[in-house]
Amino acid sequence: MIVANITSISGFLLMGFSDIRELQILHALLFLAVYLLTLASNLIIIIITTVDQHLQAPMYYFLKHLSLLDICSISVTVPQSIDNSLKDDGYMSQGQCILQVFFFTALAWAEMAILTVMSYDRYAAICFPLHYEVIMNPSKCQGALIAVWLSGCISGIVFTIATFSITFCKEKIIHQFFCDIPQLLKLSCSNDYLGVIGVTTFMSVMAFMCLTSIILSYIHIFSTVLRIPSAEGRSKAFSTSLPHLFVVSFYLSIGTFAFLKPTSDSPTTFDLMISIFYTVMPPILNPIIYGLRNEAMKAACRKLLLGGQFTKKKIILILLFMAE
After folding, report:
1. Phi, psi at residue 92, to the nearest 5°?
2. In angstroms, rounded to a whole number, what is the distance separating the alpha carbons of residues 228 and 235?
3. What's the confidence (pLDDT) of residue 107?
């Protein structure tokens, strides 16, 4: 890959993982395998939670949208990185970079929001089982999902406007495999990046409020679960709560570390691995964690893979959902 002075060009140059051609091909193949695995696993969750009559509770309704978010989020960064590696060309136009920043930040916030909603769902199901159907009725679930997607769009718009109001006066070289906001901020020669800092601070406060809500929900959940006399009841409650808690903890810890660590002019392998952990790993882990620890999900997967349970009408309904 030839690095030229592209200060005056509207686009950016993504350095990726390596300049060695063989390693670029290896990176592309690994990312392609991960991408296809992620698409397949999340599509399976979307399919079975759409057509299986035993998986129509609010928990699975939110899980279906979490899988949709995961498909969208990994599609923002990974296919472009694969294409760049195969072509040995890291150039990305400003328009492509703007779209990537928008969708990346929008989907990241939407994932945080839906994890918060899912924690409230578990709180209502375990702490108020007799009133659960009233608390999480279909209209409230739909309203919560609308709020998730709408808040994600607002977050993406605000971050994108703030980021690209910066005057880029340095060589437009990004030491990442996608348009990473901290890397973009390094290209500014003035204080006009303070707008991004302000937006980031505000969104961090909102994320802290979500985290507080999640923590309070799980304090009540574990307090209630420990009072359940039946060991089987406690096991069932933990089996639906602990995976969600693990996903939230992983998502927040990796994301917080990635955005708080100082950026470097010559990123190490560790820096690139961290970026993979918060961009690629969550969409892979979510279906594995929720699928392997939930007996109903495993039974539905077995029916899907072994039983041929889906009619032509059901498949059409799934495709219509994906197109919305």
Report:
1. -135, 130
2. 10
3. 94
Query: 91 has which bridge partners?
Result: 13
DSSP 154-203: HHHHHHHHHHTTS-B-S--EESSSS--HHHHHTTBSSSTTHHHHHHHHHH
Quick check: 88 and 24 in contact, CB under 8 A? Answer: yes
Listed in sequence order, the DSSP H helices in 178-268 are: 181-185, 194-225, 231-260
Q: Which DSSP string corresponds to 29-84?
A: HHHHHHHHHHHHHHHHHHHHHHH-TT--SHHHHHHHHHHHHHHHHHHHHHHHHHHH
Rounded Cα–Cα distance for residues 316 and 324 (Å) = 13
What is the Cα 280 distance to its own chain's centre? 8
Under DSSP, the state recorded for 8 is T
**115 pLDDT higher than 50:** yes
Which CATH number does the domain housing residue 249 bear?
1.20.1070.10
7 lies in some domain: no
Domain span at residue 120 reads: 12-323
> Residue 242 — pLDDT band, cuts 50, 70, 90?
confident
Is residue 140 in some structural domain? yes
Query: Which amino acid makes up residue 183?
Result: Q
Over the stretch 178-198, which tens digit does the pLDDT of each residue have? 888 888 888 877 676 677 888
**Tally of domains in the chain:** 1
Please tell me the pTM assigned to this model: 0.83
The verdict on residue 145 lying in a domain is yes
- Quick check: is 60 in a domain? yes
